[in-house]
Amino acid sequence: MTMIEIKIELTTNKKDKPTINKLGFGQFYTDHMFILDYIEGKGWHDPRIIPYQSISLDPAAKVFHYSQTVFEGLKAYLTVDKRVRLFRPESNFKRLNISNERLCIPSINEEHALEALKQLITVDGEWIPNEPGTSLYIRPFIIATDPYLGVSSSKSFQFIIIMSPVGSYYKEGIKPVKILVEQHYVRAVVGGTGGAKTGGNYASSLKGQEIASKEGYSQTLWLDGKEKRYVEEVGSMNIFFKINGTVVTPALNGSILPGITRDSMIQLLKSKNIPVEERRISIDEVIEAYHNRTLEEAFGTGTAAVISPIGELKWKNEKVIVNNGEIGEVTQMLYDTLIGIQNGSLEDPFGWTIML
Ligand code: COI
């Protein structure tokens, strides 16, 4: 393994930590952050951990105008025996480089990024909350910093990692959420950037989110960008349906984010001999399964959302109530197993977790 030498400047002004019931999602940040710079010709350089602070960028920096940016989301957990555990961090840095490739951002050294993250967590370890359902959410991201308004790839970038103690992403917690299926707008198209984790995908999802909120729904379910017929993803999570005993999730087609929790749940279902299929699934098939009473469960998966049961889907004028609006048996099993592996109360036969 190659080594990375990181300069560390500790804060002299530690912040108060929020009380657990105020955590919510992504509202508080730890005392330190990691930064790494890139300049064409020199490469990535000057890795440092510094006190958490604002960054100063030229108003012409490309990230503000042309959204040349990528990000990741992963979590650190305090295990039942008070050790720090990361869930599949290598997969996140691998996916970051896949997103980098799509956004014309130079790749990072994945081993160095993991080492930097471990050091940052060691510095801010006391920020990992210790209650069930809480964790330290980690947000690595890269921004294009060239102050040049021509539409071309930046020659300078910053890679930054910030961390935030979090509770549940949805105010509902593990209670089933209500989701509106969007008929008009689309999030991404095949050939676009939907499969990369880049800010623009999330900006394009805001309109749907606003429409859903106005109708009292938590999130939007996006259909494919071409025919508006096939189920894609929710934006903050991938989606699964249990139909007649088989768990079905949309196959990755380039416009769907390849979720790490999604992949983990497919592996977990296979290991439990529960039939699971990755394939195209139309909204008509979901509605038909509801009508003939074979739609048994629906749930979303994501780092932020964990496993989130879906209690209602609204499509056009029809309200599809899933499992009487209650969490299903398979959804509960996946949630319990995932949480158990993450907090160390269950064995990790998949080798997903790393202890610090
Ligand atoms: C995550 O699950 O980590 C995400 O990135 C989803 C969302 C909060 C943007």
What's the SSE blueprint?
Blueprint: E1 7-8, E2 32-39, E3 43-51, H1 62-66, E4 69-71, E5 74-78, E6 84-87, H2 89-102, H3 110-123, E7 135-144, E8 156-166, E9 177-181, H4 199-214, E10 219-221, E11 238-243, E12 246-250, H5 260-271, E13 276-279, H6 283-291, E14 295-302, E15 306-315, E16 318-321, H7 329-343, E17 353-355
Parallel strand pairs: 1-3, 9-10, 9-15, 12-13
Antiparallel strand pairs: 2-3, 2-8, 4-7, 5-6, 5-7, 6-17, 7-8, 11-12, 11-14, 14-15, 15-16
Helix pairs in contact: 2-3
Bound molecules: 2-OXO-4-methylpentanoic acid (COI).
The site of 2-OXO-4-methylpentanoic acid has 6 residues, from loops.
What do these coordinates show?
With 356 residues, the protein is α+β, with helices and mostly antiparallel strands. Helices cover 24% and strands 28% of the residues. The protein contains seven helices and 17 strands. Strand 11 (238-243) and strand 12 form a beta hairpin. Helix 2 (89-102) crosses helix 3. The chain starts with 6 loop residues before the first strand and ends with a strand. The relative contact order is 0.15. The model has no long low-confidence stretch (mean pLDDT 95). The site of 2-OXO-4-methylpentanoic acid has 6 residues, from loops. Residues 73, 202, 236, 302-304 line the site of 2-OXO-4-methylpentanoic acid (COI).
